[in-house]
Every structure is written in C-alpha cells, then in structure tokens.
Amino acid sequence: MRELVRPRRLAPGARVAVVAPSGPVPEERLQAGLDVLRGWDLDPVVAPHVLDRHGTLPYLAGADADRAADFQAAWCDPAVDAVLCARGGYGVQRMVDLLDWEALRAAGPKVLVGFSDVTALHEAFAARLGLVTLHGPMAAGIDFVKNARAQDHLKATLFAPETVRAIGSGGRALVPGRARGVLFGGCLSLLAAELGTPHARRSAQGGLLCLEDVGEEPYRLDRCLTQLLRAGALDGVRGVLLGSWEGCEPYERVRALLAERLGGLGVPVAEEFGFGHCAGALTIPFGVAARLDAAAGTLTLDEPALR
Description:
The chain is α/β, with parallel strands linked by helices. Helices cover 31% and strands 22% of the residues.
C-alpha cells in the first residue's frame, strides 16, 4: 500500500460543493451545516438533487443517476475546491459505477469529506484516482452541526493541516505495540460489502486499518470481520485503529469480538479512538502514512493531510 496524492488545503473564500450520494437529507440540518461552512468563510454550493427523495425507495436521496450526476458535476467544476457529502445512510454503491472516472481524474485532486456509506467512495478514490480523502463529519450530520470538537478538528484539517498531525483520542490498547503504515478503512460493513467489486482494495499490505460501524449486532460484526479475514483482505496489515460502535452494544461484547477476531493478526490494535458515528468524531485522512502507538492511544501523521 502506497501513500496517495494529497489535495491542496482550503483557504478563505474557497468554494465547496455539498452533494448527497446516499440517503435523504433533512433540509433543516442541511441549512444549519451550510451556516457552519459560511462561518468558516467558505462559499458552499448545493448540488441540484441534494434534497430529492427516491419515488419508491425512501432510503435513497433521489435516483441513482441524479446522485451520480450531482457528484460528477461538482467534482469536475473547476471552481469547486472540495466536495462534502451531506450525509451517509445507503446508496453510494448504487451510484459509484455510474461515475466517469477518467473525467474525475482529469479534474485533478480535490478534497473529499465523508464517512459511513461514503466508505465506498473512499475505496474507489484510492483505487481509481490514488487520492487522499478525509473520513470526517458530513455537512448535514448532527455531529457537524452541533459538536464543537468535530467542527474544530475538521476545520483545522481543511485549513491548517499541519496543526493536527498528532491525533490523540484518549484511546487504549486492545493489543499493545507500535506500527507505521498508510491509513485506510471506514465502516466495517461497507468494507465487507465492497469485496469483489471493481473498487475493492486488492491488498492491505503496509496499511493501518481504521474500523467503525453503527447499529450492528455483534454477530453481524463477526460475520463482516470473518468475511474480510477469509478473503485475505487483511493480510499484511500493520496495525488497526478502532473507532465508535454506536448502537452495537453492549460494548463489552463488541470488545470481546474485536479482540478475538483481530488479535490473531499479530499487530497493534487501538480501541476507542474517537472517529466514526460518535459525538466529537475526529477526522482521519485516508492515504497518508502515520505511526500508531496503541498503548498511548496516539496517531501521528508523517505529513499533513493536505498540501
């Protein structure tokens, strides 16, 4: 696994496009998120179909083709410096193969921000474009709108990434040790669902794997982890960072599962690292090399997330 190309940081006045590649977006939260972005002296523009609802599938923010067209147009607009996903849910896997990857590559490096269902885009951007992407709060998410820590960490990553090279969460070691590798990962169930697709990562060799999920019972998490292990998708991984497991409780059961399934990898594993579906979620740059100290609960980036 190699380090990926880092997009440029944002500056005051930068134009950022808000898109909805997954689930339907609450209008009030979207407007609140836009106010936050304007407060950062950014110029947010909303894609045409962000507030759409699919006619027969209410868990989708409009038709697949429209969601893909919004994303494509935003990324290929030379006036746009970053693309922020409005929310997760489900739907990226239905639209990602409709994107014109040659056109996206020609548009050049830009910032992409999102998490949860956006895991499928993180994987595709790494595999197809070789770009660093940001696993962080989304523009119409509750955490983005209401949590100061989540806002501050994302803002610093976007505008002054050299100030957040050391990411400490107060986490603890599930398996002690230190490791260096390239950050990747996301939502566990999405990573398992990506196996066998055109955008699936071919190897975890040399990587630091970030995992989190929401609303999954322990046996389902077990199934996803076992699928990744059986497929060889975690072979060669150098370390694991575990984020939040909201709605997957009781956590002690989840913790026992994670220790049992990941302990056999023989690499450091740090838990409760503060990213994902949790209050005050930290922003993690995928595609950047970093050093993990599981016992100290720290992650130190080799270089800033953005140029």
